[in-house]
Amino acid sequence: MTKLKMSRRAVLIGGTALLAAPPLQVLAQAATPSIHVLKDPDCGCCSAWIEILENENFAVTVEPSAGAELMRYKLANGIPEEMASCHSARVNGYMIEGHVPVADIRRLLDERPDAVGLAVPGMPYGSPGMGPESEREAYDVFLIRRNGVAEPFSRYGA
């Protein structure tokens, strides 16, 4: 039988590794944001958008919701009626309304502005989940401030 002998160096390295583990777990969670989506259970374009999020390493949960119930949720969470689209989502305290590109969601999470979230009103053709990007119509992504004012966050040309 061999005798296990721990050096002072081994104890310090092991202790340092244990202290580093929680921050590494936080970084891993930040790299994989959780996003909760409310959508009509029969909507194919919403499902396509969700698939894009999943392919971009978002941890997606889905809750079926439709009609007046979904609109009440949007309004109660600061989405102005004129910014509404087909689905709503929440990620790290922000609302995401409609077919918002992943790059804009990631930018929002990096910059952390004081805002309700992002919206792509309506369902512009060629936005994520709404047909091929190569044939898209021009659309804007709006940042919705807490006072309800929407301002351009990014623009996608035709």
Overall description:
- The chain has 158 residues and is α/β, with parallel strands linked by helices.
- The chain has a single domain (32-156), classed as Glutaredoxin, CATH 3.40.30.
- The protein has four helices and seven strands, in the order αβαβαββαβββ.
- The chain has helices at 8-31, 44-55, 67-76, 102-111; strands spanning 34-39, 59-64, 88-91, 94-97, 115-119, 139-145, 150-156.
- Strands 2-1-3-4-5-6-7 form a seven-stranded mixed beta sheet, with helices on both faces.
- A hairpin with a 2-residue loop joins strand 3 (88-91) and strand 4 (94-97).
- The longest helix is centred in the first third of the chain and has 24 residues, at 8-31.
- 27% of the residues are buried.
- Residues 24-29 have low confidence and may be disordered.
What would a concise description of this structure say?
This protein has helices at residues 8-31, 44-55, 67-76, 102-111; strands at residues 34-39, 59-64, 88-91, 94-97, 115-119, 139-145, 150-156. With 158 residues, the chain is of the alpha/beta class. It has a single domain (32-156), classed as Glutaredoxin.
Topology:
Layout lengths: L7 H24 L2 E6 L4 H12 L3 E6 L2 H10 L11 E4 L2 E4 L4 H10 L3 E5 L19 E7 L4 E7 L2
Parallel strand pairs: 1-2, 4-5
Antiparallel strand pairs: 1-3, 3-4, 5-6, 6-7
What is the percent of helical residues? 25-40%
The domain tally reads 1
The biggest sheet amounts to:
7 strands, mixed
Strand fraction? 15-25%
Oligomer: single chain
Our Rg estimate from Cα atoms comes to 21 Å
- The end-to-end distance, rounded to whole angstroms, is 74 Å
Uncertain segments: 24-29
**Bulk shape:** globular
What would CATH call the architecture?
A: 3-Layer(aba) Sandwich
Mean of residue pLDDT? 87
CATH topology: Glutaredoxin
Structural class by helix and strand composition: alpha/beta
What's the helix-strand series?
HEHEHEEHEEE
- Strands of the widest sheet, in order across it, are 2-1-3-4-5-6-7
CATH class membership: Alpha Beta
